[in-house]
Please model this.
Amino acid sequence: MVMVEERATVENLAKSRHLLVVGKSIERIDSLDKVLGKPIYTMDILPENALYLKVVRSTHAHALLKRVDVSKARKHPGVVAVVTAQDIPGINESTALLPDKPLLASERVRFAGEPIAAIASYDPAIAEEAVDLVEVDYAPLPAVFSPVDAFKADAPKVHPDGNIAKHMKLRKGNIEEGFKQADIIVEETYKSQFQEPVPLEPEAGFVIPEPDGSVTCVGSIQSPFHVQTGIAKILSLRPEQVRVIQAVTGGAFGPKSDEIPVDVLGMAALVAVKTRKPAALAYTREESMIGHTKRHPFVTTLKAGVKKNGALTAWETTMLADTGAYASLGPLVVIRACFHATGPYVIPHVKTDAFCVYTNNTMAGSFRGFGGPQAHFAAESHMDAIAKKLDMDPLDLRLLNMLRPGSLMATSQVVDESFGLEECVKKAIEESDWHRKREQFSKMKGPKRRGLGIALMYHGNSLGPEGSDYASVNMQIEKDGTVRFRTGLTEYGTGAPSGLIQIAAETMHLPVEYFKIDPPDTDYCNDTGPTVASRTITIGGRATQMVAGELHQKLKEIAAGMLGSSAKDVESENGVFSVRTNPRSSVSYSNVVRSAYDQGVQLKESGTFTAPKCEYDPETSQGTTYLQYTYGAVTAEVEVDTETGQLQVLKMVTAYDVGKAINPLSLEGQIEGGTVQGLGYAIMEELVHKDGVVLNPNLADYYIPTSLDIPEIKSVIVEYPGHLGPYGAKAIGEPPIVLPAPAIVNAIDNAIGVRLNEIPATPDRVLIAYKRMIEKTQKA
Amino acid sequence: MAKHLLKFSVNGKDHALVVESHERLLDVLRDRLGLKGTKEGCGTGDCGICAVLMDGKLINSCLIFAVQARNKKIQTVEALGTADNLHPVQRAFMKWNASQCGFCIPAMLLAAKDLLDHNPSPTDDEIREATSGILCRCTGYVKIVEAVQTAASEMRK
Model:
């Protein structure tokens, strides 16, 4: 098993002085500009003479492009430029992982909505008009719209190598043996839908052509360095010739991390280099919902072997993930789903096959949770299905099989002592009043019934096997004492960069007011990898601790010189350096900084923290897949109207082992926001495709929760420090979206005795399932 | 296309502009008057992010033609407060970290102000009702409700 070299975080924590900044609910550093409505987002800071782009998109889900004629559009008065694949100086590619997707389609389109050309005008209305003047002749090809159909041998091929972009396997023990040991076998198929991330700011970006042939890209993005390499490839420039600056970003949730910002800025860049004018592209809501990546729909077949007493003996899972026309990060999504397919339980014999499957639907890719929600919806629904078969309390079934320190996960990774799941369950049970309410609800009569459900989770932190896991930070102290903090890790609403400032302030024993974050800018930051996988606090936090620690040491050395002491004897608190043995001999932070400047000492440090590699056997997925885990337990209390199928979620208790809350208030905000996004996934959100065409690409027909849809949310923070993050902090950005769906579906079963194997649990689905169950009972 | 003279007041200042029939109030505010605090989230009146106050009523500025604002008083987020003199709702949103990505916040603040101007002691349900036309995807609305309550008690002092 790989251990983080510096197990120091946990041990140091025990030894450390009382924390002054970390663990405090302080205000985020980005709030003031936001509440003042300052012009900080991409479209607020557009250059005055910018061209606007509008995109010509495929109307067919799968077709050969016989002819793309842009001549009429080009001649349309007011149109300044039209770009197609032929205008690409470099490689026609805008991808996340596999080289399967062009920036602009030239020979074939694989989904309805795929970009074919872009039109630029100073007036966006004129560009829009000209979109209709582009003539495209399609030769339709056979198409496939479900992962189950696409998986069949005779299915139309979306890509030349077939429809399977990734097959991930897990093998633990001997699955046949596991089923032999079982008294009963429970098998079900679970289906989950396309969930649309809906960042409230749709994708936007602009590109400025520089006199030296380089370009500056500004946009609403998560991962500047991915954009930099993507645009460089398209324009045939060196990455250093592409400067990428993140504007303040109005929500992201995943789709702004990979190829989508490369699409947006790539099309704008083609126009910018062609016209030598700044060029901007802002997606409409409809374009965003069609053009960017969503949560993968999964079809999951689960077969479990169980002893009469509830002990799990075998767990066999087949997952088909619909990645749409292009893989995006689908292959990595199925890796994470595969590792988490059993839920947080001890099962001796496990077999998982997870497939990332191409179809001619729109693209799925990164979205908060990244395979975790789909895996846990199936696994945690299945636990209740098993409990129902055994006539057991689903809580007891879980407690019997739950992971514990020393037990083996499905990957055979040993559960370490940083394990807060048991306490999360305890808290969730207490706060939800589990036993009393379940008893009370079981006696309810009449059309409106209540139910209480539970679900448990684990979430491997950061990238694990999904990529090289590093982060870098630059810090510089200015003459007036301001500490300028720079990193390529981006803020898009999470508050994590504000958390990094708390970590830096804690390390340097300075108030947070001294710190200032500069916008992520590839010209001034080292490559930091992507801002994904809830890794800003864990990995970025370690880099921050490292760099702030070095800078602090430098200050101590200068202070020691001023105090006639040595650095090891100097301590600091709240901006005052003093000699440990003689506290009256002291010097202020601002004087130390001034002295450094007088002596010509550079108060500047940068550094990269790289997490140890996760090692596992790719054939069996046995090994160490993640360096630490976040755990959680969620309960949902619902009321179901059996006459209408109407469902109301009344209360949710969300208990998470977060290792260490760097900022409890911000952390609660993450939990509440994720819970509500997960509630939407559970009961109302579904992007509907018909023959590959999205039927509801707008916020009138695609519902997300409003302030009137939210239940009472009780969040409980449990802290079992982990080995990876600073001060033991664990990932929390993604986990809260994982459990609402299974907890709510289990609560519905508790209320009306019906298991829903498909989400979202809309009123019609609830009503139909309930009526079927009543008919069945009456027949019996 | 027909042109119209639009005289209206924005954040207490009188303006006279020539606008075309099809111009939206949102674009006039953002592009002609440079008030970028008002955001566009959907352009179809579904998300509420472009909300401004027109004669003290919360409206979606993407659904209003600029000419419809003739002789009206418009208030945008820029009128609420300044860094040195924040409106209580702005202070309360900061205190609760109720602004995450921040994109819905200008509209939320105006909805909150509008509510508190008419109802100094709202219940949580009344706050939810008053902000229900504005979507937020980050916060789950919990801290927003807390913030509006804090602002209400500040304003009652």
